């Protein structure tokens, strides 16, 4: 059931100054002379706004104040926090809605390296009750358990691409899988023939955010980003930009697009980096739903 009025939770507790291990970051002023520290109480109040289905993130107003011997003191801390507290519920309800439309068809996530195909794909598979597969991992297994980076080094990119196509062909015969595809899977038209057996979703993430994510973990496992010199963020950003120029149109072949800039704008977030994988998965379910409804002429 949805809350239609705002709710406030309050509790108070005694302060035991001798047990406060660190120096306080603010000071308290009270309206009476402070003689008995045992009468100093702290009051914590959190106000949750009324829930609206369209608002995925809520502003929770948190206030910490003090009172002495039941006389009010000053507010120590007052802040608005954004909380994604209903993401789990939304994920559940959206997946229940989309499940019957998908009817066992696989979901293929496409997008640039680092766009979150694995992270979001695992969430989607869990809520849909699907299995999860990663085409890069299948290729690694097929190549005898060596990493993608080593496959590129030892056998070259064409060999990798052939194995990738073979992995997608095998997956196209399966049902109830969420598949994280390799970042370059979109460049071969034959791969689309396989992916169109299911529903494909493009995770469209700004290049700056991709470069930040990849720079944070290093480029070692991503052979197409690993050769240039310079600082990691800049070289990653430059290389991703040229790859995107070559591939942007190919990603747009996907049945549905999940654009992080659009999600941020809808939910009042300033930065796409603040979007949680769950919020992105919810948008993916919404986009899959509208694609399938449109396809069925609903
Ligand atoms: N919404 C998010 N916010 C912040 N970091 C994220 C988010 N989604 C994924 N990441 C991080 O970005 C990195 C890449 O994510 P992930 O491996 O899911 O992407 P991918 O598309 O599968 O990448 P690749 O195609 O290179 O295998 C990981 O370190 C992951 O923790
Ligand atoms: O974008 C790409 O071309 C690639 C992305 C990775 O997922 C791997 O499939 C491989 O490193 C190539």
UniProtKB/TrEMBL annotation:
Name any cofactors this protein relies on: Mg(2+)
GO terms for biological process? amino acid biosynthetic process; aromatic amino acid family biosynthetic process; shikimate metabolic process
UniProt KW Glycoprotein keyword: no
Keywords carried by this UniProt record: Amino-acid biosynthesis, Aromatic amino acid biosynthesis, ATP-binding, Chloroplast, Kinase, Magnesium, Metal-binding, Nucleotide-binding, Plastid, Transferase, Transit peptide
- Pathway annotation from the record: Metabolic intermediate biosynthesis; chorismate biosynthesis; chorismate from D-erythrose 4-phosphate and phosphoenolpyruvate: step 5/7
Q: What is its EC number?
A: 2.7.1.71
* Catalytic activity, reaction form: shikimate + ATP = 3-phosphoshikimate + ADP + H(+)
Under Gene Ontology molecular function, one entry of this record is: metal ion binding
Q: Report the protein's function.
A: Catalyzes the specific phosphorylation of the 3-hydroxyl group of shikimic acid using ATP as a cosubstrate.
* Record-linked PANTHER family: SHIKIMATE KINASE, SHIKIMATE KINASE 1, CHLOROPLASTIC
Query: What's the domain of life for this entry?
Result: Eukaryota
InterPro entries named among the record's database cross-references? P-loop_NTPase (IPR027417), Shikimate/glucono_kinase (IPR031322), Shikimate_kinase/TSH1 (IPR000623), Shikimate_kinase_CS (IPR023000)
* Descriptive protein name: shikimate kinase
- Organism classification, top ranks? Eukaryota, Viridiplantae, Streptophyta, Embryophyta, Tracheophyta
User: Kind of enzyme, top EC level?
Assistant: transferase
GO-annotated cellular components: chloroplast; cytosol
